[in-house]
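Reopening closed ticket. The problem is back. First fold of the pair:
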Amino acid sequence: SRLSADIDWRRSWRLGYGLLAEWEVGAAADAFRTYDDSFYTEQLTRFTPRTAVTLRLPMRRQEASGATQFLEPIVQIGWRNEGSGDVASEESRFVEFDQGNLLSLSRFADADAREDGLTLVYGANWARYAPSGWQAYATVGQVLRSHADPQFTKSSGLGGTTSDLLLAGQIKFGEGLALSTRGLLNGSLNFSKAELR
C-alpha cells in the first residue's frame, strides 16, 4: 500500500530576445507498507525534493509560400533527491522515453519510483504548418546524468549517464490521417527502439 503527497510551484519569465525561462520547485512525500515480503522493509517513508530551470527560445519564420515554421531549442537543468530505501515497484517497471516526458523530472509511470540526481536535458522542437492544411512536427532530445540510475533498464533508452538520442516526428494530412514515428538512437548509432504508426 502507498500514500503519496506532492506539492509543486512554477514561475516563468519572458527575457530579452524572446528567451523564455521557467523555474519549478517541488517536493513529494511517500509512505509505503509492504506485506509478506522478506526483501523489502515493511514500512518506509520517503521525501523527495526537486527543482529545475528550463530555457526555451521559440522562433518563427514565414515562408513566401505562406507556410509557417517554428523552431524551439530547449535546455533544462534539474535535480531531485529520491531519498533512501528500496520499495516494491509495481507500476513503474516499464518506462517509455518519448517527447512527452523529455522534460519531466521523473520519467517513471507512477510515484512508486522516482528519478534521482542531477540531470541536463537538451533538445529542440520544430513544426511546419502549410496553407494547404498539412502539418509536420519533430522533436530531438537527450538526457545527461551526474550518475547512472540503476532503476532504468538498457531497453528504456535511459540507462547509464547518457540517454539514447530521442528522435520523434509526425505528419498530419487532411481528413484526420496522421503518420507518427519515434526512435531511440544509441551511442553506436543504431536504433535501440523504433515505432511507426
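Second fold of the pair, where the issue appears:
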Amino acid sequence: MTRARLGLTLVAVVATATIYGCGDDLLQGVGPADEFAVDIGETLRDEVEAALSSLTLGSSLDPIGTTQAPPDAASVVAVPCVSPSSATDSDGDGVPDDATYLFTAPPCRFTGWRGGTLDIVGSLRIQDPSATSAGFGYEATLTGLRSRFTSADTKVIYDVTRNGTRTLSGAVNALLLTAELQVIRTFAGHPDAAVDKQWNLNFTPAAQLQINGALPSGTLDIAGTMDWTRGTEHFVLSVGTFDTPLQYDAGCIDTVQRIRAGEMTATGTFGDLEGLVRVSWRGCGNEPEIRFESTE
C-alpha cells in the first residue's frame, strides 16, 4: 500500500462516538474495540464529508461547513480561499480548462470548524474533461493536500492527508463521483493509519442541479473498498450505504455535520472475527453514532 503523506480538502474533529454492544474481550488479539471501531468510523465520517464537498468545485475549495450562510445563488462559494493558476474557462461552467490551486493557511484557515480550526495546505489540480461544452464534471489530482484540525483548547490536533484522483461526471438529475485515493490519517493518542480507498458515490438531487449553483439537498449512495493498515492491524473492508442512503440537507447551514439520516458500514475480518463497523447519522448537527457488530 502506498503511504505517501498527501492531502485532502476536508477533515473533521474526533467525534464523541458511542460504541454499542462491545465487550472488553470482543476482539482478542486485535485490540480494544474502542481503539479501532471509533477510528474507522470517524475516518468513514470524514470521507463522507470530503466526498460531499467534492460534488462541486466551489465546495472543493471552501469545504461545506466553512461558512455559516448559504452562498450567493450565482456562485457555489462567495469568496474562495484560493485562486487558480489559470482563470481560463472556455465553456463558462465554472470549471477551469486546466488549473492548479495551491492552498496555504492562512488564507485557507477556517475558524469555528467543529468548535476549532481547520487549516488546508497543498495542491489541487482541476481539469475540465470537456472544455468546450458546459457541464458539471471535472478531473482532480490531489498532491500534498493536507487538512489539519485543531480543537479550541489545542488538546486535539490531527491531520488527514491524501494523494490520488477524483473524477466527477453527471447531468442536472444525478452526479457520479469516483475516488481513488491514498489517505494517511493521524489520531490523538493512536498511531497513524494508512488507507487505500476506492469509492463510487452517486448523488441524486431533490431539485435539478444548476451549473455554478450550490448543491441542493439529495441522497448519497456510496459503494467501494477501504484497505486499512495501522501497526499490526490490516483490514480489507467493503464499505457502502447499501439499503440506507445518506440524506444531505442543504438547509442545515449552521453546522459542519449536514447529513440528517442514513447509515454506512465497513465490513470485513477483524483479527479472527467477522463483523462490521456501522456509522449511523441521526439529525443535522449531531455527530454520527459508531458501533461494532459481529456477523458471526
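Update: turned out to be a display glitch only; the data is intact. Residues 1-32, 68-77 have pLDDT under 50 and may be disordered. DSSP finds two helices and 13 strands in the chain. Please close again.
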